[in-house]
Amino acid sequence: MEKILMRGNEAVAEAAVRAGCRLYFGYPITPQNEISEYLSFRLPQVGGVFLQAESEVAAIHMVYGAAATGARVMTSSSGPGVSLMQEGLSCLAAAELPCVVVNMSRGGPGVGNIQPAQSDYFQAVKGGGHGDYRLIVLAPSTVQELVDLTYRAFYLADKYRNPVEILGDGMLGQMMEPVTFREPEFPPLPPKDWAIRGKGSGPRKWVVCLDLDPKGLEALNLKLQRKYRLLEEQETDYDTFGDPEPEILLVGFGTVGRILKSVVREGKKEGLKLALFRPITLFPFPKAALFEKAKGVKGILVVEMNLGQMLEDVELVVRGKVPVFFLGHTGGVIPTVSEILEYVHGLLKEEIRV
Amino acid sequence: MPRARVVINREFCKGCALCTYACPRGILVISRDFNSRGYYPVMVTDEEQCAGCGFCAQVCPDVAIAVYRE
Amino acid sequence: MKVVFERPKTLLEKPFTYCPGCHHGLAQRLIAEVIEELGIADRTIGVGPIGCSVYIYEFIDVDFVVGAHGRAPAIATGIKRSLPDRVVFSYQGDGDIAAIGTAEIIHVANRGELITSFFVNNAVFGMTGGQMAPTTLLGQKTKTTPLGRDPQVHGFPFRLGECLSVLEGSAYIARVALTRPQFIRQAKECIRKAFLTQMEGKGFSLIEILSPCPTNWGMSPKEAVDWLEEKMIPYFPLGELKVKGCNSRETP
After folding, report:
1. Strands C63-66 vs C44-48: parallel, antiparallel or unpaired
2. Are the Cβ atoms of B59 and C180 closer than 8 angstroms?
C-alpha cells in the first residue's frame, strides 16, 4: 500500500474524511491549525461541510447539532480551546451523541504556550466538564497510529454513542512521517434510529441533555456508568515493548511512549532489563493489563510531559504493591532519552527504596 | 339558539382572565370551581350574547378556548 | 357551525407548564399554527433554550434538540449545515439569546445562516426567579436590581433586533407583541414571513416577541399586559426592522 509523507495534523484530517466525517467545525489555535486548513479544502471535495466558528464554544455546539442529526462530525483544538469546549462536551456526553474531538495539546496552565505538552490528561480522562461523565480517550504516539486511531475514534463514537477525544500534542501534530491509510474493517454498527432528521411520516423525536426528575437523571447516570464499564471490558488497548521480564517497567503515553521505546533500546545496550507499557486508550485505562505487567518488577517509572497526571492512575492500579517513580517535564520541555536512562540507573543503583 | 359557541378546556385554563378583558361583550368570567390543577377556569355567562369574534381564543396564552360560529 | 378558532394539531394536546398570563404558550401556538399552515411539520427541527421554555419540545409536534444555555443558534447551525433541506428554528429567551448567547446569535445572523430564531423578551430571567436581564428596562426593579436598573451600573436595555438588523446576513427581523388580537394577527404574519425567508434561502430571520412575566414582575396578568404596552413597547418599538427582498447569498 502506498506510503505518503504527511504531517500529523494533516494525516488526522485525511483519516477523518476517509472514516466518513462530513462536517467539521473549529476555531484557529496553534499547534493544530493544519487540521482546519486541510479540511477547509478537503471536505468540500467530498460534499462535506467545513465551517470556521466564532469560538470554540460555538464550534462544539455546532458539533452537538450536527451529531444530533446522526452525521459523522469532528472538531479539533488545543488546550485553551478544549477548555472552552467542556460545556459542550458535557452536553454531548449527557445526550449520548457521538463525535470526535482532537486535542493537539500544548503547554498550560492559562494561555501557556504553543509547545507540546501532556498536561491536559486530567481534563481529557476525568471528564473535564461538569457532571459524572467520561470521554473515550485515545493517545497515539506516531502519525501512523494517529491515522489508525482516527478511524477507530469514529467507530467507537458511533458504537457507544459517546464523544471520543484523540489526545495528541503539538509534536505529534507537527511531525511528518510516512503513513498508509489502511481502511480498517469494523463490525457493522446499529442504525442511528435516534437521529433527529425531521419526523417525516414517523413519530417525532428529541435529543436533550437535561432531566429535571431526580430519578430520571440518576437513571441516565447509571446508564452512562454501565457504558463506561462495558468500554473497560471491551475496548481497552495498550502497547508493550522490551524485555519480557523487566526490572523496571516504563509507563508513558503518546509522544513520551516513543521516547521510552528508545530508552528501552538504549538501556538494553547498557545491560538494563527494561520494558515499556504504553496505554493507547487512556479512558478506558488498561488497568488489568498494567496490573499483570507490574507483577515481579522492581519498580515502575512513569514519564509524562506534565507533572504527574497519568501517574495517579498508575498508582491506583498497583495500589502500593510496586514502588512507582515519576519523571516529568512540562511547559514544552521534552524528556530526553539520556536523562531518563540516567534516572533509571540511579533507581537501580539505590536498589529502589520504597 | 346561540349564534356562536365558546368551548373552554377547563383543565388547560389557568384563570389568567386575559380573555375576560378581550371579550367585547363581557360574557366571560372566572368561575368559582377550581380545576384539578387548582386553577379557577374561565366560564361563559351568556352564550346568547356571543358574536363568535374569537378574541378570547386569540389572546388565550394556554390555547384553552375554541370558538365556533353559524 | 364554522370553526372560528381551534387549537392547532401541531400543538400537542397537553396543558402548558407556564405561569398564568405568560405569553410563551401564545407564542408557541402561533409558531405551531404557521408550521402547520406551511405544511412543514415533517421536516422542521426546533432547537430549545435553557429557561422557562426548555420544555418547548413537549408542546410542538416536531423533532427537537435542546442543548446548553445560549447555544441554540450554534446547535441550529450544526443541524442546518448537516441537513440543508430541513426547516430549522431556535426558540430562546432574553437571557439565553441576548446575554450568554450573544456571540452565537450575532454570528449566526452575520453568516446569513438559513435558520429562524424566536426571541421571547420579557425583560427578566424568568426561570431563575426574576433577575435582571439584558433587556430589563431602566428603573425596572428585579431580584438583582432591587433599586431599579441603573445605567451607570448595569448599562442599557439591549435592543437585539436593531443590533442584528445592521448585519449583511440578516434578511428578516421583526418585533411583535401578543397583547391584543390585532397584534397577534400581525405577529403570526411576521412568523410566517420569517419561515418563508428561510425557506426561500434569503438569509437569517428573527422574530422578537415582547412577552409579559406576571410572576416575576409581581403583577396580575392584566397589569402585566398593560405594563408591557405602556413601558416596553415605547423602548422596544413594534414592527418589521429589516426586510431584505433580494437573496443575500447572491447579492453581496
Report:
1. parallel
2. yes
d(CA A293, CA A242): 12
Say if residue A257 is exposed, middle or buried (CB neighbours under 10 Å; 0-12, 13-18, 19+).
Answer: buried
Range of the domain at B25: 4-69
Q: Is the pLDDT of residue C249 over 60?
A: no
10 Å Cβ neighbour count for B52? Answer: 18
Give the CA radius of gyration of chain A: 21
Residue of C nearest to A86 (CA): C68
Say yes or no for a CB contact (<8 Å) between A204 and C78: no
Distances in whole angstroms, Cα of residue C202 to Cα of each of C105, C196, C199: 17, 9, 8
CATH numbers and ranges of domains, chain A: 4-235 (3.40.50.970), 239-349 (3.40.50.920)
| Window 149-208 of C, Cβ < 8 Å to B | 178-181, 184-185
CB contacts of B59 in chain C (<8 Å) are: 26, 178-181, 184
For residue B10, give the CATH number of its domain. 3.30.70.20
Q: CB neighbours of C218 closer than 8 A, spacing ≥ 6? A: none
Beta-ladder partners of C88: C45
Task: Write out the three cell numbers for A296.
Answer: 515481579
C-alpha cell at C25: 404558550
Contact A208 C74 (CB under 8 A): no
Q: Please write the tens of the pLDDT for every residue from C102-125.
A: 999 999 999 999 999 999 999 999
Q: Which three cell numbers stand for residue A211?
A: 432531566
User: How many structural domains are present in chain B?
Assistant: 1
**C21–B16 CB contact, under 8 Å:** yes
CATH of the domain at C53: 3.40.50.970
**Quick one: what percent of chain C has pLDDT higher than 90?**
96
Give φ, ψ of C11 to 5 degrees. -95, 120
pLDDT beyond 60 at C252: no
Contact call for C24 and B54, based on CB within 8 A: no
Query: pLDDT-based confidence at A352, cuts 50/70/90?
Result: low
Range of the domain at C165: 24-243
- Counted across chains B and C, CB pairs separated by less than 8 A come out at 83
Chain C 89-108, CB below 8 Å of chain A: which residues? 103-104, 106-107
CB < 8 Å from C in window 253-312 of A: none
Average pLDDT value for chain A: 97
d(CA A135, CA A156): 11
